[in-house]
Amino acid sequence: MSLTVKVSHIVKCYDGTTVLDDCSFSFDAAGTYVLTGQNGCGKSTLLRICSLIEKPDRGSVAFYSGPSRIEEDMDLKRRLTLVLPKVGVFNTTVMKNAAYGLKIRGMDAATIEGKVRRALDFVGLDHKSSQNALTLSSGETQRLGIARALVIEPDILFLDEPTASVDYKNTTLIEEILHSLKTANKSIVVIATHDRDQAKRLADRLLVMRDGKIEIAES
Amino acid sequence: MKLSGRRISLSELLSFIMHGMSYLLEGFGKAFTLIFSLDRELLSIISLSIAVSGVALFISSAIGLPVSALISLRKLPARGFIISLMNTFMGLPPVVVGLFLYLILSRSGPLGFMGLLYTPSAMIIAQTILAFPIVTALCHSAIVSVDPIIRQASLSLGATPLQVGVTIIKEARYGIISAIIAAFGRVVAEVGAILIVGGNIAGYTRVMTTTIAMETDKGNFELALALGIILLALSLFVNSMLHVVQRKGQR
Predict the structure, then answer these.
(1) B166 shares a domain with B56
(2) Any CB–CB contact under 8 A between B166 and chain A?
């Protein structure tokens, strides 16, 4: 059964500023959700909470497989992943970066190699696999971030501003990757972006965040 | 011109200086002869120096790295205090360490029954005490300066808390290696503590720095100079390594 997530009445404050204010939504159908809204409206925070990296101050995040609720444990955490806006590459080769998620899951080297090669090929970085990841351009870094997330074949993939600090050419490339992901993938992808045009290009469902809530949900 | 209460001429002064220079040069010449003839005594002194400092460094790293990882990755309540303590102890005067250790290890001291005074073991303990705060404080600062995004990235990829910790330490590896090299540089050049607890016994606890001190006292400069040159070369080597590692880490 595929995984769905429901957030209910989430509140999150940082230093007295309320970022998420009674935010509720269900990501319950396969496809690409795009979350737009101005900087600081709470998109990134919502993504970090949904991907279980942060806890909300109030409210709940619940995961379901069909009708039954799934307990929040390591197994569940390993079925989700978030690509951070600055990715956070490790100071090692592109190959080892992309292999990280599989290695910590204890997969054997031969399987890892095959999966990682395919993912790097998918984002067009196969030829740079033995290069140090810190020497990549910001566009390439983003693509590595996507490959690193895709190798673990997540049930829900969150992407936070995947093209924010990326040039036009790489933005197009990344959008193409995300488009081909749609046809290849039957899972849930949630993308946060401040770029309305991009949101329209990528979204199956377009969501707008304002004042810490998801306000308009267009299909 | 007056020198030692006696008037001397310029030519006399020049001859004094020339004489001194030739004396110094002769010393250097003999020192190099000792180095290049691979003198047995010299080799045993050098190898004991490196062995004592190496073992001390190994022990202090084996304890210091886990301690620094624990205080930087976990929000321990005593964290600030431990760091201040380590930073203070980084500048610990070796003679004071030697004195305290002497009192503890001497026959009437609390650990006197172990008979460790004037043994290489006592020297290792002394240098471990000196190296430990350096390794711990510098490793801590290397680990806390890893970008917090690394933690989030490894969490988001499904790492357990232990795996997150290992990932952060791996990211700090160049800083950690630098810390260990810096500590080695300090202990190998240290004389106060090992002289007091080691006793500079020929063929047993005599190392480079203690030999230099003693031979200089005796006016026997060849061996002192030879060891000085080797110590400097070692220090240069260690610092070059440090530089290479730090440059690699700055990428």
Answers:
(1) yes
(2) no
Q: Are both B171 and B190 inside the same structural domain?
A: yes
**Is some CB atom of chain A closer than 8 A to the CB atom of B153?**
yes
Question: Which chain A residues are closer than 8 Å to B171 by Cβ?
Answer: 90-91
* Domain assignments of chain A as residue spans, ordered by start: 3-89+153-218
Q: Are A82 and B160 an interchain contact pair (Cβ–Cβ within 8 Å)?
A: no
| Partner residue facing A152 (CB), from B147, B150, B158 | B158
Residues of B with Cβ-Cβ distance to A81 under 8 angstroms? 156-158
Residues B136 and B203 grouped into a single domain: yes
For residues B33 and B47, membership in a common domain is answered with no
Name the CATH topology of A3-89+153-218. Rossmann fold (3.40.50)
Tell whether B251 lies on the interface with A, counting CB pairs under 8 A: yes
Q: Say whether residue A192 is in contact with chain B using an 8 A CB cutoff.
A: no
Collapsing DSSP to helix, strand or coil, A14 comes out as strand
Could you list the pLDDT tens digit for every one of the 251 residues in chain B?
A: 666 677 788 888 899 898 888 888 888 888 888 888 888 888 999 999 999 999 999 999 999 999 999 999 887 788 889 889 999 999 899 999 999 999 999 999 899 999 999 999 999 999 999 999 999 999 999 999 999 999 999 999 999 999 999 999 999 999 999 999 999 989 999 999 999 999 999 989 999 999 999 999 998 888 888 889 889 998 899 889 888 888 877 65
Choose from B151, B157, B163, B167 for mutation: most chain A CBs within 10 A. B157
Structural domain boundaries enclosing B151: 40-249
**Does A40 lie at the interface with B, CB-CB under 8 angstroms?**
no
Chain B nearest CA to A92, separation (Å): 9
